[in-house]
UniProtKB/TrEMBL annotation, chain A:
Keywords: Membrane, Transmembrane, Transmembrane helix
InterPro entries to which the protein is assigned, alphabetical: Brnchd-chn_aa_trnsp_AzlD
Protein name per Swiss-Prot or TrEMBL: AzlD domain-containing protein
Residues annotated as transmembrane: 34-55, 87-105
Keyword Transmembrane helix: yes
Domain of life: Bacteria
Organism of derivation: Streptomyces radicis
Automatic annotation (TrEMBL), chain B:
Sections of the chain in a coiled coil: none
InterPro entries registered for this protein in UniProt: Brnchd-chn_aa_trnsp_permease (IPR011606)
Topological relation to the membrane, as annotated: Multi-pass membrane protein
Family assignment from sequence similarity: Belongs to the AzlC family.
Record bears the keyword Transmembrane helix: yes
Biological process, per Gene Ontology: L-valine transmembrane transport
Protein name: Branched-chain amino acid ABC transporter permease
Domain of life: Bacteria
Extent of the signal sequence: none
Length: 107, 240
């Protein structure tokens, strides 16, 4: 990831952060826009979870199925997260599930 | 800073410390996974300092590591950070407001995270709000960036990330972050449609773009609740 991309992301993020304090009373964000931005963030995160769990990609060869071990690990971690398991355990359980499945020969 | 700490009660300070610990773990895994995935160590470290937004950092690196284009990575991360926009209006008066010092305003804006906003809005007194915002903001900034650095240094020593199942860690962190917001039915519907669109588009589009196509899912979310739920949110783990 080149430096210019990181700086571009940083600048855009800072603009979002500064808009409220800088504009103050001159602009109001409506409740509906507020809600939609939250929905958009959730939609994007879930899509990232799905694609990052299922596909491996490269810019030249396109995407390929990542195998069963990774999505199984993600599901195991997700189930624990639903039960409000502490975060570190969720991550360890997901990685361990994937690792054990691979050890058993699941791709 | 010390007088700010005195303004806050013990419970709040303890909660801030706990959230810092939880976030530090997320940050360390961010550094480790980014480096073990093949990025040079300065990338997660610099990105954390200048972007300082956990979910967006994870998203950008996930897109890049999956072979996606840099522009797609930046766009996806910016869509996630757009939620900071309404936060800014909610907490603007905490760092200066009108007539405040410019430097205070700039630093205060950079420290804006889900957690700091949540801690501030939980307090009733304006003084306590201000104190909670600054104390949690500074504490999170220090612990987040310190932990990313440690993670990035450790991650370089990990050789076979696949055998350790570390490729499952990225998606599961994002999943743990997003689960609380899926309690809302309209959000859940939009997210499922979006994920289906993204997965269906994955074989046909260059990596990174399918995730952006998922935003079509927002269209099926409807118009939202008549009285949208106020952000009575608990600080999410790992979402500065």
């Amino acid at each position: 990831m080149p430096l210019y991309a990181i700086l571009l992301l940083a600048a855009g993020t800072f603009a979002f952060r500064l808009a409220g304090p800088a504009l103050g009373d001159r602009l109001r964000i409506g409740e509906r826009t507020h809600w939609r931005l939250g929905v958009a963030a959730a939609v994007l995160l879930v899509a990232l979870v799905a694609t990052a769990s299922l596909a491996d990609g490269s810019a030249t060869e396109g995407a390929a199925f990542a195998g069963w071990a990774r999505p199984a690990g993600v599901l195991a971690g997700g189930a624990l997260a639903l039960r409000r398991t502490p975060f570190p355990l969720v991550v360890i359980a997901a990685a361990a599930t994937t690792a054990v499945l691979r050890l058993c020969g699941v791709p | 800073m010390r007088s700010f700490c005195r303004t806050l009660d013990r419970t709040t300070l303890r909660d801030i410390a706990l959230v810092c610990c939880a976030d530090a773990l997320v940050a360390a895994s961010f550094g480790a996974i980014a480096v073990s995935g093949g990025l040079p160590p300065w990338v997660p470290v610099v990105m954390s300092l200048v972007v300082f937004a956990g979910a967006a950092q994870f998203a950008a690196v996930a897109v890049v590591l999956s072979g996606g284009g840099v522009l797609a990575a930046v766009l996806a991360a910016l869509v996630l950070n757009a939620r900071l926009l309404p936060f800014g209006f909610a907490v603007a008066d905490l760092f200066g407001g009108r007539g405040g010092r410019i430097r205070t305003r700039l630093v205060g804006a950079h420290l804006m995270t889900d957690e700091a906003v949540a801690f501030a809005l939980r307090q009733r007194e304006p003084g306590a709000r201000r104190a909670a915002y600054w104390v949690s903001g500074v504490a999170l900034f220090v612990s987040w960036n310190g932990a990313v650095l440690i993670g990035a240094l450790v991650g370089g020593g990990i050789e076979d990330t696949g055998a350790l199942g570390l490729d499952a860690a990225f998606p599961v962190v994002l999943l743990a972050l997003v689960l609380p917001s899926l309690a809302d039915r309209a959000t859940r519907r939009a997210a499922l449609v979006g994920a289906a669109v993204a997965v269906a588009a994955t074989p046909f589009l260059p990596p990174g773009l399918p995730v952006l196509c998922a935003l079509l899912g927002v269209l099926v979310a409807g118009r939202g609740p008549l009285i949208p739920p106020r952000p009575a949110r608990e600080p999410l783990p790992g979402a500065p």
